[in-house]
Specification:
By secondary structure, this protein is α/β, with parallel strands linked by helices. The chain is built from nine helices and ten strands. β2 and β3 form a beta hairpin.
Length: 316
């Protein structure tokens, strides 16, 4: 059996993991994230269709590894996702969670969780992802002080299945084969995902997400209007100085700079829209409408660009 993972599902896991465990967050404050996969079985393979982040652990520096609990809201979310999948002819094929900064393995809690679901669905699996494993390409040793094992083109995770669910937390487990779609090879996957992690670290914060994007759009709108106003004032200065012959060239240069600024801003906005797919399920209903509203403010101003540039041109 092979687990087929679409690129977007893989990036969902990566983004959700890195959002709560990255270089901008103190290592002691890194948090685990938990979610599910929906998909279907075709022949002998499991085809993942989507990955959903559901919850992250609450910071408790006195807690032991994996000490987190699903809230009632998280359980309701799981049911909603499962029901929605069923309505589309899909089902929950497996789960995923993160081990930020520590070994990709199954804890006794992971085994208990997997045994519960795999008993009902023998093909159920769980994926464990460590962003540091992907970034550093090393396997965390079993014991502190032991040497790290070097890896090559590793995607940062392993997929596990239990050998005998009847043994409960005493069950042994094995890894499963997988294929990640959307990349020419694993070397390309690692290279592109490294860049993606930088983008997530810089622009997909765990806290004050809406405020971050609101500030970004406000700053870009201020700069946009400043560029338009500055262009007009510059041209007026040229006319006052008797250098009207320079107006066409300067105007063309200013228009080029403004359009470049707009294009670069749209690239960042595209990232914001992509990141909305990586939110925890329960966040989407509140955050996405608010983000769409501020993005519409940008769109509304930029759609007037050609008209404003034409007005400036007519003046000179």
């Amino acid at each position: 059996m092979t687990i087929i993972i679409p690129k977007k599902a893989y990036l969902t896991v990566v983004a959700a993991a890195v959002r709560f465990a990255n270089q901008k967050i103190p290592r002691d404050d890194w948090l685990e994230v938990n979610g599910v996969f929906i998909g279907e079985k075709k022949d002998e393979d499991i085809i993942i269709r989507e990955a959903y982040p559901i919850m992250h652990e609450k910071l408790d520096k006195d807690a032991v590894i994996d000490k987190y609990e699903w809230s009632e809201e998280d359980n309701v979310t799981y049911t909603l996702i499962d029901d929605e999948a069923f309505s589309r002819g899909l089902y929950t094929v497996g789960s995923w969670h993160t081990h930020p900064g520590f070994k990709v393995m199954l804890s006794h809690i992971d085994i208990r969780h997997l045994a519960f679901h795999q008993t009902a669905n023998p093909s159920y699996f769980t994926l464990v992802f460590n962003p540091e494993r992907l970034l550093r390409q090393v396997e965390t040793p079993d014991k502190k002080g032991d040497p790290e094992k070097l890896l090559k083109n590793d995607p940062g995770f392993k997929i596990f299945s239990l050998d005998d669910t009847s043994r409960g937390i005493e069950a042994s487990y094995h890894t499963m084969d997988f294929l990640i779609e959307g990349y020419e090879n694993m070397e390309q996957l690692v290279k592109q995902t490294h860049k993606f992690i930088i983008d997530v670290t810089n622009f997909f914060p765990k806290d004050k997400l809406f405020e971050t994007y609101q500030k970004f759009i406000q700053e870009k709108l201020t700069k946009f209007n400043s560029l338009l106003l500055g262009t007009e004032e510059y041209l007026m200065t040229l006319v006052r100085k008797g250098e009207s012959h320079r107006v066409p060239e300067v105007l063309n240069n200013q228009i080029h700079d403004i359009r470049k600024f707009v294009a670069e801003t749209y690239i960042k906005i595209a990232s914001i829209k992509d990141f909305m797919d990586f939110l925890e399920y329960k966040e989407k209903s509140t955050i996405i409408p608010k983000v769409n509203e501020i993005l519409s403010d940008w769109d509304e101003e930029v759609t007037k660009l050609d008209t404003k540039l034409a007005e400036i041109s007519k003046k000179f």
